[in-house]
Each structure stands twice: as C-alpha cells, then as structure tokens.
Write a structure and sequence with these properties.
Elements: E1 4-8, E2 15-16, E3 20-23, H1 27-36, E4 58-63, H2 74-93, E5 106-110, E6 119-123, E7 132-136, E8 141-144, E9 165-172, E10 175-182, E11 187-191, E12 200-201, E13 221-226, E14 233-240, E15 244-251, E16 259-266, E17 273-277, E18 282-286, E19 290-295, E20 305-306, E21 310-316, E22 324-329, E23 339-345, E24 358-360, E25 363-367, E26 372-377, E27 385-391, E28 398-402, E29 405-410, E30 413-417
Parallel strand pairs: 1-3
Antiparallel strand pairs: 1-22, 3-23, 4-23, 5-30, 6-7, 7-8, 9-10, 10-11, 11-12, 13-14, 14-15, 15-16, 17-18, 18-19, 19-20, 21-22, 24-25, 25-26, 26-27, 28-29, 29-30
Length: about 425
C-alpha cells in the first residue's frame, strides 16, 4: 500500500504518498520558488551516513517526473540551596543562563496507556517556552517539555469521563482545538499556558447528521484547519461529515461562545482535509476525490479539480505560501505528475487516513505504520532525494519538526530524533 503527499499551486495538484509523493505544482512557479528558497538549517549528507540498516521488508520508491551540596555548615547549606533555586528559576526564563546538555540522538517519552487511547496529533504551540501537546483519540492531553524532553506529569489532562472521539486536532497560536465526530461537543478548546491546563467545551453544534452519512462515521467534525491567532481571538475552520465547512471565531475570554459562520461551499462527500492560505485568503479543501479552492474574500468556489488519489492531508508550505502539499493514498489510476516520491510498506494491509507528515523549507518528513521515518529533499523536482531514513519500533501517526528536531507520535510514544536533520 502507499501513502502520498502532494504539492499544489492554486489550481494545480501535486501528489505524494508515504510510499509515494507526487509534486504537481506548475514548473514555471514551483521550480523557481523551490530553487530560490534555500533552507537555513540543512547540511548536505550522504545517505550512507544515516546508520540505518536496510530491511528487506521495506522498499523505497521515488519517481521523478516533470538535551552533593556541601553540608559542612548548615547555614551555608541553606544559602547555597536558595542560590541554586534562584539560578534554576533564572535558567528557565533565560536561554543564555542554561547549562548546555547533550541530548541523546533518540529520546523516547512513553505516555500513559488508556483504553481506546490511540495516537492522534502532536501539536506545537507558537510560544517557544510552552510544551508540546499530544492528543489521543479519546481526548487525553499529555504535555512534553521541548527542552528537557520528558512528560510533565503534573500537567496531565486525561479524558474527563465523557465518551468522545477525536477526529482531528490543530493549534491556533497557543490554543489547541479538538474536533469530535461524536460526544456532547463538536469542538473543545485547550489553552496552553504556564499554568495548569483546563478544557473549554464549545456550545456550538453546527454540523448535523447527514442522511448520506453512515452511522459509524458520526455526524460531527471530520477535520480542522487553523486560520489566525490574533491578540485575544482564535480563528479556525471545521469540515464535517455533513459535507459543510464552518469558520469559527472565538474570543479568548469566552471560548465557550464562539461565532460560527457557514462557508459558501458544499462538497460532494464528507470533508477529508483542509488548509488555509493566509497570503491570498484561500481555503483549500477536499472530499478525498476532488480539490476545492474557496476565495474567502469573494465567497466564491470555482469548479473543483478532480484528482486520481484519495487526499488525506493538506499542507500549506510555511515558507512558500503559494505552494500546497497534499498527502494522498496511492491508487491505480495515477495521472502523471511532474515528479513523485514516497515510501512503500509492503506488509501494510491498509493506510491510515490520520497519518500526517510535516514540511519545512524543501524537506518533507513523514513516519509510517511500520515505524519507518523518512526525510525527503525536493528542492530539485527532477531529482527527489531520500535524504535520510530511520527505523523506530513503534508505528507513527504524526511527525512534526520542532526547534530543528524531528518528533514523532504513535502507539502512545513521543520520540525525539534530535540529530535526524543534521547528521
């Protein structure tokens, strides 16, 4: 089976998979943008230096187309302890005061095991002093220190005892948003601060059960897309099984009462993925078989573009905003793209639609069901390079790049690959 990823301009589709990635951005704009964009933290590395033994059950396919107090005197000890505490507090707020600690190349952070606690999303708040947030399918929230790479047990926020099913989660500034396809709420807010975390359930229930939706699919949110995190407000989109998309605007002081507005677009089936393009105020969405590009300024959606592969995830390139990357599932009816790259797990019986990678400059990284984490460099669309590959013991659902490190989440474990981008 294969899992693709795609690059796209407004009207063009670029496709790629975990086993196959296809880039369909127009050459006149895409190639020029990619060649003109030079990553700031890349080092050219030969694949042989990765130190990862190849395994016969894996196959890489990429195609190119178009970190004892002295007790001598009790009073001196007290002074020393107070001094150390002061230094410790100071080091938390000032990077220049921190002692440089060599982190291992790989650091695993296991999370508490819970029934139905499948991994969903690993989210990165905008403020660098805040921890990573790991969200499970049953809405457990665990917080992981970015610098010291351990779980903050006192901040653990397990499910409150309500039956909920997380379909997707995103972060808007420093606020995590959870989307549910079943349960008493469709959206829950989780502001990430230096204080103890708390949930805020939204009262709005805009998505309704559709007669065409199977009972097992639920009737709520299917996917999310972050929009803006202006001072004092949180804005994002929800796509539902009911084929509708809504824009949510919430005041940070009253998150339970957001303003919900329906977007003028109605998809042919449930919304599978979305992404917001801030540079031209466009919303890119998909129902797995078609790509819809909605101009939010004019409230207009042109005729959708048919695609040959099922679209599972949509990314807007953070450095080149006119490019859009699609993660797709490979199919037999594959139209010829300008280039394709990916990874194939020969033993996978099916590909999870929740699996998601991350894009950074001209690098794309993605973990897979068999634990393989692959990094591609697509700066030259005529010669896509598999820059590095690592093999983990746990399956991976979400892969992100945080502070120059690759971090994966899957099977209840957060794994820091500290040297993955630089070795």
């Amino acid at each position: 089976m294969t899992d693709p990823v795609n690059l796209q301009d407004v009207s063009e589709v670029a496709e790629a998979s975990s086993s196959r990635t296809e880039v369909r951005a127009p050459l006149t704009r895409t190639v020029g943008a990619l060649r003109g964009q030079k990553p700031t933290s890349q080092r050219s590395t030969a694949a042989a230096r990765n130190g990862v033994p190849s395994q016969p059950r894996q196959r890489i396919n990429h195609y190119t187309f178009n970190h004892k107090i002295s007790t001598e005197d009790r009073s001196r000890s007290d002074v020393s302890l107070r001094s150390r505490r002061a230094i410790s507090l100071s080091s938390e707020s000032s990077c220049s005061d921190q002692e440089v600690v060599k982190l291992p190349a790989l650091k695993r952070v296991p999370l508490p095991k819970t029934p139905y606690g499948r991994s969903r999303r690993l989210l990165i708040p905008a403020s660098v002093n805040l921890p990573l947030v790991a969200i499970s399918m049953r809405a457990d929230a665990q917080f992981i220190s970015r610098r010291d790479q351990y779980r903050l047990t006192l901040n653990s926020l397990p499910n409150p005892g309500v039956q909920q099913h997380v379909e997707d989660a995103c972060v808007v500034g420093d606020t995590v948003v959870l989307g549910f396809n079943s349960g008493p709420s469709q959206v829950t807010f989780l502001p990430v601060t230096t204080e103890a975390p708390c949930r805020v359930d939204s009262r709005a229930l805009p998505h309704v059960n559709s007669p065409r939706t199977s009972r097992s699919s639920g009737g709520g949110v299917r996917c999310l897309a972050a929009m803006n995190a202006a001072t004092g407000s949180v804005e994002f989109f929800t796509g539902g099984h009911d084929r509708r998309i809504y824009k949510w605007s919430a005041d940070a002081q009253s998150l339970e009462e957001p303003t919900v507005t329906k977007i003028d677009v109605f998809l042919d089936s449930g919304v599978s993925a979305m992404a917001y393009r801030h540079d031209d105020n466009l919303l890119v969405s998909s129902d797995t078989k078609k790509i819809y590009v909605t101009d939010l300024t004019r409230s207009h959606t042109p005729r959708p573009v048919q695609v040959s592969n099922d679209v599972n995830q949509i990314h807007v390139h953070p450095q080149i905003p006119h490019l859009t990357l699609l993660e797709v599932r490979c199919s037999l009816n594959l139209q010829t793209p300008c280039c394709t790259f990916g990874y194939r797990d020969a033993n996978a019986k099916f590909q999870q639609s929740y699996t998601k990678g991350s894009i950074h400059h001209t690098l794309f990284v993605r973990g897979h069901q068999d634990g393989a984490v692959v990094l591609w460099d697509f700066r030259n669309v005529k010669n896509i390079v598999t820059k590095k590959q690592s093999q983990l013991t746990k399956s991976v659902v979400h892969t992100v790049i945080s502070d120059g490190r690759v971090v994966t989440f899957g099977d209840g474990v957060v794994t820091f690959l500290n040297d993955f981008l630089h070795s």
